[in-house]
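INPUT
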Amino acid sequence: MGTAQVTEALKRPSQKSAEAIMGIVHPIINDVRQNGDKALLSYTHKFEKATSLTSPAIDVSFENIRKFHEAQKEEPLKVETMPGVICSRFSRPIERVGLYVPGGTAVLPSTALMLGVPAMVAGCQKIVLASPPRSDGSITPEIVYVAHKVGAESIVLAGGAQAVAALAYGTESVTKVDKIYGPGNQFVTAGKMYVSNDTNAGVGIDMPAGPSEVLVIADSEANPAFVASDLLSQAEHGVDSQVVLIAIDLDEQQLQAIEDELHKQAMALPRVDIVRGAISHSVTIQVKDIDEAMVISNDYAPEHLILQLKDAEKVVDKVMNAGSVFIGQWTPESVGDYSAGVNHSLPTYGYAKQYSGVNLGSFLKHITSSNLTADGLRNVGSAVMQLAKVEELEAHRRAVEIRLSSMDGK
Amino acid sequence: MGTAQVTEALKRPSQKSAEAIMGIVHPIINDVRQNGDKALLSYTHKFEKATSLTSPAIDVSFENIRKFHEAQKEEPLKVETMPGVICSRFSRPIERVGLYVPGGTAVLPSTALMLGVPAMVAGCQKIVLASPPRSDGSITPEIVYVAHKVGAESIVLAGGAQAVAALAYGTESVTKVDKIYGPGNQFVTAGKMYVSNDTNAGVGIDMPAGPSEVLVIADSEANPAFVASDLLSQAEHGVDSQVVLIAIDLDEQQLQAIEDELHKQAMALPRVDIVRGAISHSVTIQVKDIDEAMVISNDYAPEHLILQLKDAEKVVDKVMNAGSVFIGQWTPESVGDYSAGVNHSLPTYGYAKQYSGVNLGSFLKHITSSNLTADGLRNVGSAVMQLAKVEELEAHRRAVEIRLSSMDGK
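OUTPUT
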């Protein structure tokens, strides 16, 4: 394939018109904003009688995610940039956070873990979950269990744009939050976008969301069955999932072996229809060497990058754009999706070029400070006054001058 | 004042309707996107014959900002969350960044410094500045000098939404960037918001922008002349600037002393009309003690927080929401605006509750990786498989199972 063909093959499926969806979402948000709980038709779930479930699988995952995010804590930074000029940086938790966990037919306790654990580690004071209830009005016990473990204040039993609006503006029973996290369908995404642009809401969001995707780079040492199983893991997420294989210098027989495994394993899956849909617009690109593969991968900026390669660890140095990397034959994507410790809330749709996945920092903000001694102000004062003069901000200049005069007893 | 009165007094001036501005900005962006340079009416400025200016004030500021942002670099993180399960986190520079420097009547080399230096320290490959030219078509030499020093690729001589569109989509002569930074008027802000919501642009922005603001907390030890000079520094930014003073247990005489200084110093300023406008809707709030002051300040979440207090350094522990803090009598805001080393691109309009100011991390993204040994997969595998089962993602479960079977020689 030529460069233009590769670019064409890797074009992500076009997103539905943002304006059409906004037209639906806008009145929903206004309704919740004005009419609160009545519009939300929700109630908050209290934990007292929530669940007696215990899940060792959740406990193991919780602990690994906690450890990895705990290690991301930073000490305050202090730098004396000039004698007597001390600049510092420290972090503070975002006070109130809203975590959206998709529900309905799907059951996603892993999303509750991936958002709730870092919020807990960061020290956020109020953690509010929102998740659409099941048809009987209840919520998956695994999600309630996670909410318990992370110390959430409540679970808002609602989904869609109305849940996002409740978190952004607050209602009688839902706490207004400072930032909203989590994946969701196009209405959730449009709702998050809308409230993050409304200065009256005063709310941030984690990142833009698009369909999930994987790019697997395999060489002749890769086990065809493992490669196929990773491609299928991604494919089962939905028909709009993107599945890309870059094959490094594989011959016909090796490519066929992967293809054969793909069909054999797909036939055994319960979601075979979804898998077939995703596989049908998956892409295989053949390249000569790892450098060629990495140019394509870095340009595509995959959410998940799987390296089934000889010396895979060394190749990480060449990774410039990706959400999360899975190294070597014993690291399927699913370990990162659930339990290894890394976060699974990752940038999609090429946004790995400028966004990080959810991490401890997503629940903190950095604040800086300056503290000058009298000598410090003497040292830096003339630079400040000269620049203030260039910018014609005379009061800025005088705020320094008046202090220097005071030191000199004038 | 009661709580409700304080809240009312500290209400930020309402922003113009986002929809009205979007109506103007939308066609401009589409025009540039479709017609490139022709619509942009711009050209890029090459550096060869740019300037022979040297500015010691810029050199000093550059070096302090460089030092403070250099110190923000992180080592890669590696955590073994379970035996054989190794999770890592490392950072990569955002490849192409666009820095918007307001111009026209204002001359803002400091903005070029505050955005350009961290981009350079982060190792961004392409740094593109955009700034509206002066009436003779040229650009302020100080900005050209900064562009030189940070290794910028070019300066796009254009402003407003059209400059933002050129950076977001690229034109024949302007490099498309991955993220756009910098302050600007309402059209620049609306343009940044628009392109950050367009998945076809694939571009991020630094943060939402609103009018600049300062909150000064002063006690009886504060020098009235210094307090007044800091309030005036903020006021001269524009009539929509927010200027708030919290006075801790000051008597009538002390308050009057600040008031008198304010008027005396204001009369001497060239921008006296702007200053008067801002001062006219400034607010003074009297409180009993520092705790009461900090509740108000943290709720307001000021862009700039100035502590003119006894033991000001200790009070920093109580700061939960603020862009940047200025500690003690020898630290006027203007040192941070220009030369101390801290960044002056800070969250306004209460967004300090969830956003950090521009820092080194604004020019990087974090990527995680997992690397499991065979034993690692054995250790974590059952948790992964159990959660995949709960979520009914069978291919995820099998991606682990097929590997465990292979280890056991099945």
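end of record. Chain A touches chain B through 133 residues (CB under 8 Å).
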